[in-house]
Amino acid sequence: MLAPLILAASRSDKMRAFVSAAPGTKQVVDRFIAGESVDQVVPIIEDAAAKGLEVTLDVVGEDITTVEQSQAARDAYLQLVERLKELGLGTKAEMSIKLSMFGQALEGGHELALANVRPVVIAAAAIGTTVTLDAEDHTTLDSMFAIHEELRKDFPQTGCVIQAYLFRTEDDARRLAAAGSRVRIVKGAYKEPAEVAFQDKAEIDKAYVRVMRILMEGAGYPMIGSHDPRLVSIAQELARQAGRKLDEYEFQMLYGIRSDEQLRLAAEGHRMRVYTAYGTDWYGYFMRRLAEKPANLLFFARSVLTKG
Q1: Of 78, 96, 285, 308, which sits with the fewest C-beta atoms within 10 Å of its C-beta?
Q2: DSSP category for residue 217
Q3: Which residue numbers delimit the Proline dehydrogenase domain (predicted)?
Q4: Is 182 considered catalytic here?
Q5: Alpha-carbon distance 20 to 282, whole Å?
Q6: Which value, to the nearest 10 degrees, does the dihedral of the CA atoms of residues 293, 298, 300, 303 take?
Q7: Is 258 among the residues known to form the active site?
């Protein structure tokens, strides 16, 4: 399978240099990355709001190595909050944060990440929005969940992400599916060993459905992160069985993928949130998008060949 190779390449400095220099890269990156700065992404937020869509904003760049970089990441999100406040878009745009970008992997990283993310959560709450903590590889999750629990003491609307391909996720879902919680379920986009995660696509899909059922039958607010038409349809049926109204759960899809489906779901009255990434350090995010779907890799390869 190509996905593990692509995910391994996402950690390679040599591959980063090669992909960044490839003639067709920008065309493909622009499909997934909304821009490099806050000002470039603002029109996209406004356009989404006009179409009945909501967004969650991710400032890309989790591969940091210094405390100063983690503080710069914090400041980038604070700048984003200030722009959302100026534009009155707080209720239409939330934020997604990878704690690795806030220093989680550095020495004393758990405390550092918590110290960096707290002011962003405070600022977000002040303008009527919130933050969702993205899930990363399995070694980071205990820290992420502990930070999530700590933040929810003062800001119970703080969300988190769980990944269907991990064996632990059904237990995590049961624990998190409580009143007031916001939980995004995704398949998972990191290279994980067979000891902790399902490797077969069919098994991952089955696990995804099991976790969706737990979230839909729980007391929290499920956020269904999937582009798979079958899983979207199953989510609608599980919501119906659980007696959920259309505003008691939402769908989430990536910027640049299945835009027509996003509009269709919104037109049907579903809450539809578009995961919108921006920033200059796009490589890790971009490689995970290639790994998730062979068609994305084919699109990239074709662009490189035709531009070379």
Answers
A1: 308
A2: H
A3: 45-299
A4: no
A5: 10
A6: -160
A7: no
3-state secondary structure of 234: helix
Integer Cα distance of 143 and 156 in angstroms: 18
Bridging pattern class, strands 271-278 and 54-59: parallel
Question: Rg for the chain (alpha carbons), in Å?
Answer: 18
For 176, half-sphere exposure in the C-beta direction (CA atoms, 13 angstrom radius) is 33
pLDDT, one tens digit per residue, over 131-185 is 999 999 999 999 999 999 999 999 999 999 999 999 999 999 999 999 899 999 9
Q: Using the 8-state DSSP alphabet, how is residue 11 labeled? A: T
* pLDDT tens digit sequence for 90-107: 888 999 999 999 999 999
Tracing tokens 């190509």 back to the chain, one arrives at 2
From the list 16, 74, 118, 184, the catalytic residue is 184
Catalytic residue (one of 58, 118, 134, 271): 134
* Token code pair at residue 244: 């959920």
Tokens found for residue 95:
């934020």
191 in the Ramachandran plot: left (φ > 0), alpha (ψ -120 to 50) or beta?
beta
In angstroms, rounded to a whole number, what is the distance separating the alpha carbons of residues 197 and 218?
Answer: 24
Q: Retrieve residue 269's tokens.
A: 């009255």
Residue with tokens 């068609």: 295
